[in-house]
Recover the amino acids of this structure.
């Protein structure tokens, strides 16, 4: 079971690295989020795909989509329409694992990419992920059961090293848009419980 998990993660990181190299060649600002970032900042867990944000000016998505599809196969029919409507491109690189690329445009996403840094996974494999603080913001905003479990893992591992002021500064306006102030309450409770 452990070996299967490691092999699965190796495939995810192989796909992530291939996409990262391509984004760097194109000069696109980007960083990985989701399961890869969780493996950096929280508990190690299996993830079946790689998620990243690529900053794209609204209205300029098509050239980015076309360039990505020339290099990596899509995993759905009509990926261009899907990507333009939902601002997410679904790929399946030959390296093995699926990759979901979100086209970022929010102020928070710009901050997230600017604060990102490289993460050493194994010899020859370094991928750029969001910060632990930004990961908590995204997970709290999504607010699903597994997101709160991921937050718990980050709080336990990172503890008081986290910049809680930054987290609430970024999360508060997003929560206000969502009209779910209980997210902030839950996060404060989890910080008190797990961040030591």
């Amino acid at each position: 079971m452990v070996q299967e998990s490691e092999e699965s993660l190796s495939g995810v990181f192989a796909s992530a690295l291939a996409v990262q190299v391509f984004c760097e060649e194109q000069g696109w600002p980007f960083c990985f989020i989701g399961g890869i970032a969780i493996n950096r900042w929280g508990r190690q867990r299996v993830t079946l795909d790689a998620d990243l944000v690529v900053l794209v000016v609204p209205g300029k998505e098509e050239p980015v989509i076309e360039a990505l599809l020339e290099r990596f196969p899509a995993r759905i029919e009509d990926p261009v329409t899907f990507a333009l409507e939902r601002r997410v491109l679904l790929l399946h690189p030959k390296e093995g694992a699926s990759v979901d690329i979100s086209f970022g445009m929010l102020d928070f996403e710009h901050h997230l990419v600017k604060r990102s840094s490289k993460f050493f996974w194994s010899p020859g494999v370094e991928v750029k992920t969001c910060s632990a603080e930004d990961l908590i913001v995204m997970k709290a905003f999504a607010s699903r059961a597994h997101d709160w479990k991921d937050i718990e893992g980050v709080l336990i591992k990172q503890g008081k090293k986290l910049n809680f002021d930054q987290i609430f500064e970024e999360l508060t306006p997003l929560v206000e848009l969502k009209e779910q102030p209980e997210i902030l309450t839950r996060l404060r409770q989890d910080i008190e419980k797990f961040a030591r």
Q: What stands out?
A: Residues 2-26 form the longest helix (25 residues). Confidence is low (pLDDT under 50) at residues 1-5. The radius of gyration is 17 Å.
